[in-house]
Amino acid sequence: MSLFRRSRIRRTRRGTYRIELPDQERELLRHLLPQLRALVAGEEPGDGRTRRLHPPAYADDVEADADYQRLMREDLEASRLAALDAVEATVDATELDEQQLMSWLGAVNNLRLVLGTVLDVSEELEIGELPEETPDVEAYALYAYLSSLLGEMVDALDPD
């Protein structure tokens, strides 16, 4: 987060969270959330775009991992869809409680994971150093925005 820009998400003295997103950012979320919902609800095992949503629980044991995925996939999908419901219901809110902000955090993180998978983002990538002629430069900018928003949520939730 920049030292010169005030965070758009801040904890209030009442323990709620003030959300100061411009209309364009809220509209962007309104546009992205249904796309994520379609991916999560229609998710097929092996869909490359959603693979980071289901990392292996047992990297060295294919059978144990398959059992885990079979047992947990439905619950994970339900929690992701519930988070999307909560964000869609509060996308215009200026104040959220902690549970609502946690839903926002989950939904934004899932958007970021899917986009990062599509773009094949790695730890070594410096988005700020991409040349303007980079294919999908707008998608990388979106990834950077989602990362920034996620960071602000994490900072707001940090009690220190």
Helices and strands in order:
Elements: E1 9-11, E2 17-19, H1 23-41, H2 62-90, E3 95-96, H3 98-119, H4 137-157
Antiparallel strand pairs: 1-2, 2-3
Helix pairs in contact: 1-2, 2-3, 3-4
3D architecture notes:
This protein is mainly α. The protein has one domain. Helix 2 crosses helix 3. The longest helix is centred in the middle third of the chain and has 29 residues.
Summary?
The chain is mainly alpha-helical and 160 residues long.
Proportion of residues in extended strands: 5-15%
SS-based structural class?
Answer: mainly alpha
The N- and C-terminal alpha carbons lie at a distance of 16 Å
The strand order across the widest sheet is 1-2-3
* Tally of alpha and pi helices: 4
The description of the largest β-sheet is: 3 strands, antiparallel
How many E-type strands? 3
* Anisotropy-based shape: globular
Determine Rg (CA atoms, Å).
Answer: 17 Å
**What order do the SSEs take from the amino end to the carboxyl end, as H and E?**
EEHHEHH
How many structural domains? 1
Share in helix: 55-70%
Determine the mean pLDDT. Answer: 88
Identify low-pLDDT runs: none
List keywords for this structure.
single chain, 160 residues, mainly alpha, three-stranded antiparallel beta sheet, 57% helix
